[in-house]
Amino acid sequence: xxxxxxxxxxxxxxxxxxIDFKVKAIPSIFLTGMIFVVAFVNPANLWFGLMxxxxxxxxxxxxxxxxxxxxxxxxxxAFLLSTTNQFFLYVFLVLLFGIVWKALWxxxxxxxxxxxxxxxxxxxxxxxxxxxxxxxxxxxxVWA
Length: 144
What we know:
Elements: H1 3-23, H2 28-41, H3 46-61, H4 68-78, H5 84-111, H6 123-140
């Protein structure tokens, strides 16, 4: 895997997270295009991309997140993984950070005595998960 794609995806996730947090809508063409680019640059990890898509569909159907953008971003990051251990760590971090993010989001609206909105910005969770994975891989020197 080439290093520039790692940093390009990080910047992309930062921009998309800000858009999701403020607008709660991400143009689908950007996400699909980025998946295509990452899959094209990194075809050896097609298996992990497929597993990421299946896991994203499972979490979507379970109501853990609610949007096509979340499915696409989970798939996008999975294309950058190169081992089964990294994939399981990724899923664990998505679940852990997602639960914490949802708890903070619910707490924020309960403090203001407001009703929870239907749309929930979940993309920032993927930014934090990806940054954590990147940090762990840099510290261990295992980014391949």
